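Schema walk-through. Below, the input block comes first and the output block second. Nothing else is stored per chain. Lengths vary across the set, and this one has 68 residues.
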Amino acid sequence: MVGISGYGGAGKSTPGWALVQRAPGAVRLRGGDFLDIARFRRRSSDRDGVERDQLAQRCSHPSAPNSR
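--- output ---
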């Protein structure tokens, strides 16, 4: 499992796609798919806007259908 973090527009997708192409069976998950926008826009020191349970579920079972 590899996580790539950074600001919007920083270029995270490019290395992400490169890793997926080099690893058979790899799955790429987008961080934006796990955001509650209303909560995310509020300031929070612990990134409260991230749906952590859903993210953990998808990381454990990446090929499972997305519940959103």
